Amino acid sequence: MLEPKTIKRAIGPILVINFFTGMGCFQRKGKRCARNWIELAYPVSFIIGIILLNHYSKLYFHMYLDKLFNLNQHLFWMIFHCNKFLMTSLIIAASIKAQKLRTVITLVEACDQRMEEMGMPKRYRTLYKLQLYMFGILAFIVSVTMVISYWWQLSFTAPLAVKLFLGFTLTLPVVLIGISNVSFLFWVRYTGMKFRQLNGLLRSMLSTTPEASMHKRVMKLIRDLDRKKFRNECIRATNANANTMRAVKQIHLELIKISRTMNDVYGIQILLTMFTSLLLITCLLYVAYRTIWLPLPTDRFLEEMGPLVIWLLIHMSKIFIINSECTKTSAEAADTGDLICELYEPSTTKEFRAEIRHFTLQMIQNPLVFTACGFFDIDHTLIQGVVGTITTYLVILIQVGDMKVDHERPTFNTTSNATITSVTVD
Q1: How many whole angstroms separate alpha carbon 340 and alpha carbon 359?
Q2: CB 213: neighbour CB atoms within 10 A?
């Protein structure tokens, strides 16, 4: 396995994949003007390619849409246009935030250097393996999506080139959205790993155990002071702990800044993906509800429900995973406060206790909260809000749909009765 020496080599896979999909920053050394030109020209050409791809695929979809979707054609076109808008927006947002992504990499490099000086390893190999693991899962999801889409949607009689072209068009949005989400999750996992390292260092400073509780150690300290047995080694140890606490406080603040800058880089992407996922989940559930009540044969029912279930699983899992990872990292950063409060003991020096008080005030003023451009927090409460919103709008759509059906039926029956009556009179 490769053993990266620098952070840029450690995150090489994610930088390369993001750049070639138009959502990254160019990292090769050279003139800044040339680098900015490449970052501007390549995403623009990629967007033009997406527009041309969607234009020509739209022609083929019009030719074979009856064979692709027999019932849910309006839903298909909504997903098609949503994906086109989302892909273009992701590339534009990533190009605008390219410079801030470089800032994140620079801050990460400086933070890793400081943590290594304190005895905490950089763990670049773990980061490298984490990227391969996450992109491997994404490749598996894309492969399963392609196979199932081909089985249910592209099994009609058509040239192989047409099937491959349409399959690529259906899969490309999943790839781009997945790469954007994986990149955001990678940086969230990175900050979570660094917070765990800091908390591990603080736990090693804890000396309170069931055998030596705080009360016993304080009483022992009082007896040592009365007997004048207080040694200078203890004073040197507490002074060293004060220096360590000061360094941990600074690194913790740097990690908070890294997380906020990274959140600013991917805030627009996360807002767009969350909004489109909420919209599509609501529409997919409504169409699935209408499809279930239709008197369809089993094979036709599976053809209609198969793509709906696939897209539902993709969007639901995306919302759940992103919120869960952000919640874990925020909880890990908050756990530092509990640890430093346990270290606040009367047996320590005034300098050490002063550093803990400053650290506590710093954490109160700088909590770690992931947001989608400040519109809402990304945590478990968002999952609850999404479930409530989807349920509310789904009930409204079902009620409106049932009212339309009930309104159409009496009209048809009245017309029929009037016609029969007129025929009888004649």
Answers
A1: 8
A2: 11
Q: Is-contact 241 286, C-beta < 8 A?
A: no
Chain center to CA of 269: 9
User: Residues 6 or more apart from 158 whose CB is under 8 A from it?
Assistant: 64
CA distance 342 to 207: 10
Q: How far apart are CA 198 and CA 115, in angstroms?
A: 9
**Euclidean distance between the first and the last CA atom of the chain, given in angstroms as a whole number:** 92
Which residues share a beta bridge with 280? none
pLDDT of 221 > 50? The answer is no
What pTM did the predictor assign?
0.81
- The angle subtended at Cα 211 by Cα 208 and Cα 213, nearest 5°, is 40
Average pLDDT along the chain: 77
Three-class DSSP category at 425: helix
* pLDDT tier for residue 331 given thresholds of 50, 70 and 90: very high
Distance from C-alpha of 182 to C-alpha of 17, rounded to nearest angstrom: 11
User: What is the distance between the alpha carbons of residues 295 and 300, in angstroms, rounded to a whole number?
Assistant: 10
Quote the CA–CA distance of 164 and 49 in Å, as a whole number.
17
Tokens of 271: 């807002």
Helix-, strand-, coil-residue percentages of the chain, each rounded to 5: 80, 0, 15
**Integer Cα distance of 137 and 97 in angstroms:** 26
pLDDT for residue 199 is more than 50: yes
Nearest Cα residue to 234 out of 248, 246, 221, 247: 221
Q: What are phi and psi of 236, to 5 degrees?
A: -65, -35
- For 48, the token pair is 């033009």
